[in-house]
Amino acid sequence: MVWVVSVQPLKPHLVMFWMLDFVVFKKLKSTWIKFGCWGASSGIGTETARVLALRGAHVLMAVRNVESGKKVKENMIKEIPNAKIDVMELDLSCMSSVRKFASDYNSLALPLNILINNAGVFPYSFILSNDNIELQFATNHLGHYLLTNLLLDNMKKTARDSQKEGRIVNVSSIGYIAAYPEGICFDKINDRTSYVNYRAYGQSKLANILHANELTRRFKEEGVQITANSLHPGVITTNILRHLGLVGGIFNWLSNYVNKSIPQGASTTCYVALHPQVKGVSGEFFADSNIAKTSEVAKDADLAKKLWDFSFKATMSNPTSLSS
């Protein structure tokens, strides 16, 4: 049984997605994977969970809205009667929720083969999380960072016991290029006066890439059989722009004519999570189910290490220390 956990909020062509769906994943049906998907109650998280459940993975959907998650599960069961799907509550913007989820999951003594960090927000204005951290950085990066750390021992044990490669997939975005010129503004995370919504989003997506890269470095040092990669799903119409009101609605309407569909966007996530060709590949950035080039700042090992240390302190100590 494959156990996967996937977290959700949020570029192959449609024909490529269906090729993956019917040709590749047919060969990947397995009885050893537990899949975790955060942010799986809508958008590409839902589609990712559906495809993986269809291919035999036991899927745990970690969602902020449990009722919505249960409805998604019911719909999937109707389509896939033998699907193994569970739903648990998780709010990645709240560290106490992340800790509770990880504690509850670990107490179940279930394995964890694949972790998909897929949640994301893009508010129009400056908002603080419950922990008094700028909402995009708190949700898109710190929540995933903390969750991954709290589940790592489980993943390492699963990889050891099963002798199967574990995989961590961070759903980032090409939008990382819009980050602040400094890359990560460590001393201005909570600076309301310098906040620019799209740059803050880019900063959080850059953090997703750097996080995967630093995980890769650490896994190689430890000799752990786990890979970590990041990806760009494509420009997709999802509810990530729900905080933008009318502007978000207009963008989503226009995007119907130029953007990828949700199934197209989910295909790269499914590819990185399960495809045999990705075995042993770590620390890479994917787009359209292929390794893609990134900017120099996204490859900066020193910046990745600094982000790791900063994130550790922010999640293991008093988060209000980030306040400006």
UniProtKB/TrEMBL annotation:
Transmembrane segments: none
UniProt-listed InterPro entries: NAD(P)-bd_dom_sf, SDR_fam, TIC32
Cited Gene3D superfamilies: NAD(P)-binding Rossmann-like Domain
Any Pfam family the entry gives: adh_short
PANTHER family: SHORT-CHAIN DEHYDROGENASE TIC 32, CHLOROPLASTIC-LIKE
Protein's name in the database: Short-chain dehydrogenase TIC 32, chloroplastic
Native source species: Penstemon davidsonii
Lineage of origin: Eukaryota, Viridiplantae, Streptophyta, Embryophyta, Tracheophyta
